Records
---
Amino acid sequence: MSEKLQKQENNHTVFIGPKPFMNYVTGVVMQFTTQGADEVVIKARGKFISRAVDIAEVASKRFLENTVEVKDIKIDSEGFENKEGKQVRVSTIEITLGKK
Amino acid sequence: MSEKLQKQENNHTVFIGPKPFMNYVTGVVMQFTTQGADEVVIKARGKFISRAVDIAEVASKRFLENTVEVKDIKIDSEGFENKEGKQVRVSTIEITLGKK
């Protein structure tokens, strides 16, 4: 699913990719502090899953300590066709942070 | 915590590291099929978190489909001192697979 589609589905979703780490942390923190979000969903696929966990931990424990916590974590996998037409599988994660 | 300590604490724990992917998948599957485990906890830190999710997905959906599912996922972070004596933080994950 494209990043655009993700955003239509949930305005308080942050999709983790290769941009600088703090961009995503700031994105998550700002959703709570200036966008009035009660919940923010951090989504990632493949190798970005570790990064999503880091971002969730830094946002909730360093920047939003005492106000935000991990509410739910889901993992799943998606199948898709790669450039060579081969069927491949990629894992996904969704970490929901919410106000305490 | 060392891998040895993890094992003392829970015999049905698989700690994910840099060994070949299928070693861990087989390790998890064997705990259920030959060791009589009702639950297996997959643990990883830092960059191995993405791999732990892949292993949980492949073990539960490809090898143990219809018998095992994800029961719980926890994320956390640990602080420790690196070689240069600097305080660093690493994220951790614990994925509990259990019989349906």
Note: Chain B touches chain A at residues 46-50, 53-54, 56-58, 61, 70, 73-77, 89, 91, 93, 95 (CB under 8 Å).
---
Amino acid sequence: MANSHAPHPYYPPHVAVQGYAPNTLSVVALVAAFAGVIAAFLVFTLALARRLSPGLKRRRAEQAAFCWFVLCGFLHCFFEGYFVLNHAQIPGSQDLFAQLWKEYALSDSRYVTSDPFMLAIEVLTAIVWGPLSFLVAIYIAAAAATTANTRTRLQRHVLQAAVCVGHVYGVALYYGTCHFAERMRGVSYSRPETLYYWVYYAGLNAPWAVVPALLHYQSVKALTHVDGGAAKKEQ
Amino acid sequence: MANSHAPHPYYPPHVAVQGYAPNTLSVVALVAAFAGVIAAFLVFTLALARRLSPGLKRRRAEQAAFCWFVLCGFLHCFFEGYFVLNHAQIPGSQDLFAQLWKEYALSDSRYVTSDPFMLAIEVLTAIVWGPLSFLVAIYIAAAAATTANTRTRLQRHVLQAAVCVGHVYGVALYYGTCHFAERMRGVSYSRPETLYYWVYYAGLNAPWAVVPALLHYQSVKALTHVDGGAAKKEQ
């Protein structure tokens, strides 16, 4: 491990990063490896789901939703779970996930400083939203089965709605804390270059504002759909 | 305004609080005034709701839920909205809400330091969860009306479920950020006395972990209730 006063590329420049060691892999290699792992995981889980729930095959939108929640589950449980377990060692580590976090942290140094807000939100993401994302994916597959009953479909949307609210709220707080750190404290956690600020920080998180909003709307429609005027008893 | 280096009672002791001026009202007077304002608001809104939606009168649990969301709406829009608009002036101000915030901040100094996390979460609470809490209260009253249709009842529970997820997630992050600030930075935002740590910090926020969990369960039951085996079409 390098010593704690080694120079580092993170913002703000004076921030203390313990034991920083520069990445050994190129950005292209890191992104390719990560994309490969994720693609393999998605291909495998989607194939498994289509096999176990053949009804899924005919429903493109549902397959896309399934893949979205599997992606969320993977990132939350494994990638963000890695951060939760190893945050203090990340700056000096060289395994794939550590190098990916060091690269991403160029756009948000809180990931290499054991920031209390990052830890709080990532712990909840890894242990609550990650498993629930996988559960939604399972429910999507189950609800697409030809034998699926109405209750399964409703449960899927109740669960999907909850995860979507969590995602939108979480990403709003993620952007919000950065905004107010800059406005109130003059602290920017991101390097100013377009790649870091706009592509990593703004761009990579934006899907968690957009996709969950769309999926929440889908769930709201499904949950408030009243069938042919039949009175549904209030519980 | 006192100068920015005036001594103050907040934790950690070295934290900078701009322009602190001690409260002019006693704690008993502050709590009595706040409780009085809230009670008056609840009595008025509940009476109005019972008048407009007589069906509410016979439903004690629904009246309690109505009052809960009106309480949330009041606190989010007005009390927390006050913080959002006036956070920088609170330490030196003497109006009722400023004095209440100065008293509460003995258990969490982030409310007198324009903390970026507090600002991010309180802005969202004031402009999203506050109005939505009032909207849930309106839906509860509307759904209790004898003429209410099924769709209104379902919409109420979809909205209630979303607000409840927001509440539970928000309070988890509130406690979580304090926990990790203490664990990673050795920083406690609360004075150590029982009144501040256990009554204000732990106690006053705990209802937002418990009540929304119960109300979310109510909504889940209502939304996944399948009427007499009738098949409900997936949208």
Note: Chain A has seven helices and no strands.
